[in-house]
Inverse folding.
């Protein structure tokens, strides 16, 4: 989830009883049915954006050579965002597509209108990462997109485009990582995505984690491979398939290179080849741009891409919306602001683990419990203090040693003294 919305009942649905009317006992069911048939349907409940305005993890980035103001940023769970004013503002350009996890972005060096996007976050370190459905292509600088295949690749970490021929594209596919599969490795198209050939494949448990082309010789490519399998309770990373491969004939054949195992890094940097003082960096908290080689940066309150795993509400008035936020701690906000608009000033942390679930106390909304992988936190809004209330390792016992990142926690709807974890 990259933006939070709440539903409000419009004024037309707020019913005020000014008198008590007693219907005649002889009113028939047929009359009542006819009355219902002639009544207009109630209006739909509209969604209202409440935030947070801060950015979340950006997994991919691309700049436009020759243009110091235009950049693309791909969120781990919030689609593609484009700026044409050096990061002062970002606008979403991928919201109409069915998938929002962007693992790779690339702009054709020979034609800036051609933009490729690989879906699925390839930095697979948690079971909650979002899968993709292949690759997309835009021929109008991101205004519209076309799905170009490779739907079973799961996670795409890199896309490389030939410097002079935009029809030659390489895709680095990690795979779903949930088990063995054939749709992993490096794929190549020479006709702009109409057809694809898998040109590097190690084994069903190993995918491509990194891909680079020699800037001086497009026939030379390097690929990193990662042997990885992920379960909800454990991750097995590194194995005989991990390594580095090189091709010296444009991707037709590959050979292993002695060196460190493969592995992706979701924090990326793009340096403008024409103006090297211009740097675009993406991290867990969004995309930022520097035009003076890092002396100062734009801010990340321009991309509402925060990854909120779960949403819960309390019984305060007005009620508050709370949740854990990936890579940026927890967040909680009142459902309406006294200043007429909810802004970043209205958001406050409640010390839940970043991927935890908030469980406000039904008897006292200023006490917020939060799920952790092996514990439960308790935040007191009045004192600002956080304590850990268990259960302890001894209470859990050996048979409950496994856990998931987003451990469930919920209050009993029958007994307000019972909290389930």
């Amino acid at each position: 989830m990259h933006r939070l919305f709440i539903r409000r009942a419009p004024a037309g649905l707020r019913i005020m009883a000014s008198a008590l009317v007693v219907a005649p006992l002889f009113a028939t069911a047929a009359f009542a049915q006819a009355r219902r048939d002639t009544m207009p349907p109630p209006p739909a409940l509209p969604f209202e954006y409440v935030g947070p305005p801060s950015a979340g993890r950006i997994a991919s980035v691309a700049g436009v050579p020759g243009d110091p103001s235009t950049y693309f940023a791909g969120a781990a769970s919030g689609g593609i965002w484009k700026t044409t004013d050096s990061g002062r503002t970002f606008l979403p350009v991928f919201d109409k597509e069915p998938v929002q996890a962007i693992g790779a972005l690339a702009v054709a060096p020979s034609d800036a209108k051609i933009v490729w996007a690989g879906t699925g976050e390839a930095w697979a370190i948690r079971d909650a990462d979002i899968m993709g459905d292949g690759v997309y292509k835009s021929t109008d600088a991101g205004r519209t997109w076309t799905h170009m295949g490779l739907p079973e690749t799961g996670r795409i970490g890199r896309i490389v485009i030939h410097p002079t021929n935009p029809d030659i594209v390489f895709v680095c596919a990690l795979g779903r990582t949930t088990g063995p599969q054939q749709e992993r490795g490096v794929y190549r198209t020479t006709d702009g995505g109409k057809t694809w050939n898998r040109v590097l494949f190690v084994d069903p448990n190993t995918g491509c984690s990194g891909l680079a082309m020699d800037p001086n010789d497009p026939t030379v490519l390097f690929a990193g491979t990662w042997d990885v399998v992920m379960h909800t309770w454990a991750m097995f990373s590194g194995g005989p398939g991990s390594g580095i491969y090189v091709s010296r004939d444009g991707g037709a054949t590959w050979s292993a290179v002695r060196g460190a195992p493969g592995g992706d890094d979701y924090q990326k940097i793009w340096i403008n080849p024409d103006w090297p003082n211009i740097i675009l960096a993406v991290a867990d908290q969004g995309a930022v741009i520097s035009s003076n080689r890092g002396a100062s940066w734009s801010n990340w309150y321009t991309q509402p891409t925060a990854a909120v795993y779960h949403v819960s509400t309390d019984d305060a008035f007005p009620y508050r919306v709370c949740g854990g936020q990936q890579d940026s701690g927890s967040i909680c906000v009142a459902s309406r602001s006294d200043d007429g608009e909810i802004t970043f000033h209205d958001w406050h942390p409640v010390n839940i683990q970043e991927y935890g679930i908030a469980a406000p106390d039904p008897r006292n909304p200023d006490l917020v419990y939060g799920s952790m992988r092996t514990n439960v936190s308790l935040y007191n809004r009045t004192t600002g203090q956080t304590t850990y209330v268990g259960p302890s390792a001894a209470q859990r016992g050996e048979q409950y040693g496994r856990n998931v990142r987003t451990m469930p926690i919920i209050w009993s709807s029958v007994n307000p003294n019972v909290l389930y974890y």
Summary: The two ends are 23 Å apart (CA to CA).
